[in-house]
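the two lines:
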Amino acid sequence: MVQNYLKFIGFFTLLSGNCFAAEGGMPQLNPDYWISQIFWVILVFVTLYVILWRAILPKINENLENRKSQILTDLDEAQKLKDQSEKKISEYNKILSDAKQEAKKILDKTRKKVNLDIKNKKNQFDLEIGKEIEKAEKEIKTLKFSSIKDVNKIAIEASSEIVRKIVGTEVNASSVSAIVEDISKKEITKYI
Amino acid sequence: MSTNPMHQFNVYRIGPEISLGNVDISFTNASLFMVISAFTIISVFFIGTKRKAIIPTKIQLLTELSYTLVSKMISDTAGSKAKPYFPFVFSLFMFVLFCNMLGMLPYSFTVTSHIIVTFALAAIIFIGVTIIGFVNHGVRYLKLFIPSGVPLFLLPLIVVIEIISYLSRPVSLSVRLFANMMAGHTMLKVFGGFVISLGVIGGWLPLSFTVALTGLEILIAFLQAYVFAILTCIYLNDALNLNH
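prediction for all of em together
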């Protein structure tokens, strides 16, 4: 790399020597100001070194250390908070599951109670309904009997009327009713 | 402005002539740019460290990133024993970096393009590292020149080669930086000259070259500062941990 560069310099100095009016040689090799340059570079560099060493670098180092320790404490704090929140979450979960179990228990209990109630009520109703039905059936039966008696009466009247109209003579009412009674007794099994 | 591409490297006196005894140590344009570099570094780092925020501002981030960059570099190459030399390597890296970068500004002077400056820095490092080596290991530091596992009959040759390579360290360190800086700036100046001489019609090609080279030069400016610092770390590693 250095060699290539030196070749380049040689080439270009030659080129520029032809192209431009050369002032001659490299100023770097002119020893007039060598001592001055050595003096100044050492003076400036030592000053810079002392200032950086004493004033600047400790500050940067301190700041970097501060940041590192700050980050570590922050991480610690975060870990602590995380642990705490995890504990709280598990507590919360426990409370939640307890409450769920309690709710389920209450629900079961209530359901059982309600079912029992419904069963009891149903039995009672069944009983009552049976009674009502029996009563109604009895009523229907008596109504039927009474209606048949009425029907007999109507039949006696109707048949005596018919006979009177057809035959043209008064029929003995008792004989008609006896016949009707007889028929209806024979035939009643058909209607009841 | 002269059209000579080497003109930019001329050193001239600014202000009165200062002499120490009969040695001329006048303030020159090179000294001016050294002072500007150092001042810029100190200002940037002073502003960057003024507020110590947990969440850094941009300039604070810059200072912290450069701190961690150099501190990682030194701990990776030279281990934990090199921690006391961290401020030195850090200032060295920053000084070379800012001198290189300021040299990229038009009409500025590149301090590190002078062999005598880079050699002075390299000599400080070389002498310092040698002293550290002898203080830490005493005479055993000379074992650096005797690699382990070398056949006995090759030893005289190897020792001579090792000594030469050790002594050429400051030379290679300083020439690498100086040559890179000078070559880059010379090339930029030459292509800039071409832009002028080829005019409106032909000047566009060298102009685009100049733009591309400027980008490359900025990369090299950083890279050379980094290489300078990392080689210092490697030499420190040799002085602190004798692993031959």
